[in-house]
Amino acid sequence: MSTLPLARRLQNVETSAIRELFKLLGKPGIISFAGGFPDSAMFDVEGLRQASAKALAEEPGGALQYGATEGYEPLRTELAAFMRAKGVRDIGPEGLVVTTGSQQALDLLGKTLVDPGDKVIVEGPTFLATIQCFRLYGAEVISAPIDAHGVQTDSLEQLMAQHRPKFVYLIPTFGNPSGALLGLERRRKVLELAVKYQTLVVEDDPYGDLYFGEAPPPSILALTNEVPGSRELVVHCGSLSKVLSPGLRVGWLIAPHELLGKAVMCKQFSDAHTSTFAQATAAQYLKSGRMPGTLRQVRRAYAQRAQAMGDALQRELGDAIEFTQPRGGLFFWARLTGAGGRIQDAGEFARRAIEQGVAFVPGAPFFATEPDASALRLSFATADVGRIDEGMARLKKAL
Amino acid sequence: MSTLPLARRLQNVETSAIRELFKLLGKPGIISFAGGFPDSAMFDVEGLRQASAKALAEEPGGALQYGATEGYEPLRTELAAFMRAKGVRDIGPEGLVVTTGSQQALDLLGKTLVDPGDKVIVEGPTFLATIQCFRLYGAEVISAPIDAHGVQTDSLEQLMAQHRPKFVYLIPTFGNPSGALLGLERRRKVLELAVKYQTLVVEDDPYGDLYFGEAPPPSILALTNEVPGSRELVVHCGSLSKVLSPGLRVGWLIAPHELLGKAVMCKQFSDAHTSTFAQATAAQYLKSGRMPGTLRQVRRAYAQRAQAMGDALQRELGDAIEFTQPRGGLFFWARLTGAGGRIQDAGEFARRAIEQGVAFVPGAPFFATEPDASALRLSFATADVGRIDEGMARLKKAL
């Protein structure tokens, strides 16, 4: 066939510049800070092996048969307890739906809520696959500016008043790519805006458990207790990908009752249900009590690497770069200052860096609108301290 | 919030009548022929346990980390070999993409191909979740009539000429709900129509391996060798759900190169990738060489049950019902004849049957257009011969 009769919605998205860059990462000897992955070396393989064996031994039918679209009941029970332990008071198994990674939660929100031409406000910058996911449903995605303390709520209010979006999407805790942490007062303000404008707020929270020192403020969902009328306006996406294993593809969606029902209907036609084999394994793992220990270990390792990267960035790049030291998550978000006439275009810098054997991701593609060409994202998650130091020395050469 | 700002596409679908019926199945003592599930008792639990342990032991990173959207390479290799063994000559790992069950393949086809108002031709009757899935993307779904030998190609051609559909969707081998087997000549004719009208044909094939006696004719995909120009017009959806385990959610999509690329892009924003844990387990299972033995066992059990159900249907219901004995798959498709003034409405019959402690699914919802109120679907997969006989005796009472 000469030309495929493709749907018009595909014209709204394109293969990302980042994917093109990733093709270069196969080069031997490259030190990569480009990924958004957790470190495989940190996976609790033995714990997951036991959990999976137990799932197959105790309830092989449940682990291998078709399951409810809403999710495997024992996992929903564990996840509800996990959320209650993080300060979400009024949540039971029926209040959440298991999704095939939190990416599917985003897809279901697009499917249930977005008509072509609808506006959605996100942070500038935000997770690239979020932008593309919503655009596939025809959304016009608008960026709200952020700083080191997350989205600037004054600007957010202006944009909400002006655009009346279908919803606002935020990664308030150690966001990707920003690493930023939305402060407590701003969290409350976001909830007040949700109520004032009767607008849904989607809180995507895959990184919230990865804090280095003090725990972050309660999630926006947990804070709905404090802002009357806000609970029915908050959607929350959770995930085991960054803390346990992305390969399970286990995420969850918490949403107002009616929306959750519609999401389940859509999920039925998206993939029927999330792998019960993966769900039963995750349920057994959470039940085993190993999660707190795993979290402690992961936090400690990432905290050490983040410290090493911050120190090395300052040491090697000095005033050529500016950034805020992240308090959790996987990422540094930095800007090339151009000080002393040095390079200020992060795309060009990325190309030079690859030549020197080190990789990171330029920041521009993370903006739905008004890209910042001087920004870049560096992940410290998958390299140990020695590699981080060596990588930063190479970055200096690229400068 | 008083009213959710739902997307308009949700108006195209509704919670199915079948789901409502399923809620009644919890009644104690019910013998159910209503499901579309394989029998859990037939799952090779020990084989899957070994496969999963091996996956975690040999390549824990691959099984637990993020993976390529296209699929886990060793699984793609195994699946390509699986397809070659079924007569598809020109297929390698790069020619297929792993999907989260074949339901996701349908979703990706809807996403990549269907604009609101586009027409899609399906069999009347066909898989209910197919109709709903395509309607969510705005498709107008049109039924082509079938008989015991599958879709009637003369009618199909008329509909193709009249409606110029985006694509034609068929379950040619032991279709759900029809159980029908599309004959060899009709398969060739379908390919000729694809070429004549330059229209994609989607072959959904989750049941093809579940034959009872002689193997069915080659798949439409395998037959593209015989019809010049047809290979680039055929899409094929495969699945391990009915032969190994639905809980893995491992299916695959074979499509023309450009379409496969677009499906991968869409999948990236749907769920990033299918569970690598499930994929690595499936790959190890296929590599272990246990699949042929599992298939032999499953075929034997279902063949016996199908025979028992056919015999009992004839014995208990006589001329009140007509059907063709299926040669494979999981289903009987039958029509109430109304002979002797007996009941002819399958919905009413289903309600009476539940009162007698036996369940099946009325056939009308399986039609995108022009439902047949006298049709019904009975699955013989999950009841042993004794339960089948008892269930049929109850059906007689309901009559």
From TrEMBL, chains A, B:
GO terms for biological process: alpha-amino acid metabolic process. Residues 45-395 form the Aminotransferase class I/classII large domain. Keywords: Aminotransferase, Pyridoxal phosphate, Transferase. SUPFAM superfamilies: PLP-dependent transferases (SSF53383). Its cofactor is pyridoxal 5'-phosphate. One of its GO terms (molecular function) is transaminase activity. It comes from the Bacteria. Belongs to the class-I pyridoxal-phosphate-dependent aminotransferase family. Homodimer. This is Aminotransferases-like protein. It comes from Ramlibacter tataouinensis (strain ATCC BAA-407 / DSM 14655 / LMG 21543 / TTB310).
